[in-house]
Automatic annotation (TrEMBL):
Keyword Cell division: no
Keyword annotations of the record: Membrane, Transmembrane, Transmembrane helix
Superkingdom to which the source organism belongs: Bacteria
Name of the protein this chain belongs to: DUF502 domain-containing protein
């Protein structure tokens, strides 16, 4: 192979490597901007039609204001939350709920939706704050799960008959962890991990390519540096 051929191969390799490096830099930025812009546009499309034209600044301007609908939605939700904490607000909410509870189909949807949001968004809730491993689908094969809560109610009464506490876990698929299986496993069969739920989601979405740093290993390394073994 001549020197000219080697130089052409080397040049092509450098161009490919530079392109891949640029792609790694630009792709996450572009995807983040696109997702953010899509969410803002989606929120605006839902909220703006309900804003009276006299209160909408776009009625007086010659251009659209991205994010105005989202700002109005966030402000309105925050204001409702503030009003819902006082006596009058709680009375209005209780009266509205009493009306919804009288509607056969609506009350089921409302109760289920409210329970989900209270469980997920409640500050004191421990839902999905831990990540663990269970043997699934066969012994020796481990799957990543998100710990929901301890088994309660009838499920706890039926499954805890042998004295083994059961834990509710959510097994999400890869690479889109938006649907999955709710499973009840013995606490002794659950291996809790130190990684956060956010790191667990990254691990799932990347199909294992993005592995979070093991903090315990770093702690052990730091302890070794501080207290080196004898003879070093």
């Amino acid at each position: 192979m001549t020197n000219g051929s080697l130089e052409r191969i080397s040049l092509a390799t450098r161009i490919r490597n530079n392109f891949l490096t640029g792609l790694i830099i630009c792709a996450p930025i572009a995807i983040t901007i696109w997702l953010t812009w899509s969410f803002i546009d989606w929120a605006d499309s839902w909220v703006k039609p309900y804003i009276p034209s006299r209160y909408n600044p776009e009625s007086y301007l010659q251009f659209a204001i991205p994010g105005f609908g989202l700002l109005i939605a966030v402000t309105t939700i925050t204001l409702i939350g503030f009003l819902g904490k006082n006596l009058i607000g709680r009375s209005i909410v209780a009266y509205s709920e009493s009306i919804l509870h009288r509607m056969p189909l609506v009350r089921t949807v409302y109760k289920s939706t409210k329970q989900i949001f209270e469980t997920v968004l409640k500050e004191q809730s421990g839902s999905f704050k831990r990540v663990g491993l269970i043997e699934f689908p066969s012994p020796g094969t481990w799957a990543l799960v998100f710990v929901s809560s301890d088994a309660r109610g009838e499920i706890a009464a039926k499954l805890n008959e042998d004295g083994e506490e059961m834990v509710a876990v959510f097994l999400a698929p890869t690479p889109v962890p938006t649907a999955g299986f709710l499973m009840f496993v013995p606490r002794s069969k659950l291996k809790l991990l130190d990684m956060s739920p956010e790191e667990g989601v990254k691990l799932l979405i990347s199909a294992g390519l993005v592995t979070p740093e093991y903090k315990a290993a770093a702690t052990e390394e730091a302890a070794t540096i501080i207290n080196p073994p004898e003879g070093t």
